Amino acid sequence: AANILRKVATQLGLDLARVGRAVLTLPKRYGLDSLSKSYRKQSEEARLQPAS
Q1: What's the pTM value of the predicted model, to 2 decimals?
Q2: DSSP string, the chain
Q3: How many Å apart are CA 39 and CA 33, to the nearest integer?
Q4: Rounded to the nearest 10 degrees, what angle do helices 16-25 and 2-12 cross at?
Q5: 4 φ, ψ to 5°?
């Protein structure tokens, strides 16, 4: 798989190191309507708790 990725990157002129770094710095996005209700409640409770 890595050799195919390198070949495609070469053909498209992409720098894989920069692409990898950009992917790692992107925040994970969640659709609020796809999260379970219990997870949303836990997240809300954690947000309201003061940091100790």
Answers
A1: 0.35
A2: -HHHHHHHHHHHT--HHHHHHHHHHSPP---GGGS-HHHHHHHHHHHHSPP-
A3: 11
A4: 100
A5: -65, -40
Distance separating alpha carbons of residues 39 and 18, to the nearest angstrom: 34
Dihedral angle of Cα 9, 14, 16, 22, to the nearest 10 degrees: -130
Tokens 């770094």 label which residue? 21
pLDDT per residue as tens, the chain (52 positions): 788 888 888 888 888 887 777 676 767 777 767 667 776 677 777 766 665 5
Contact 32, 40 (CB under 8 A): yes
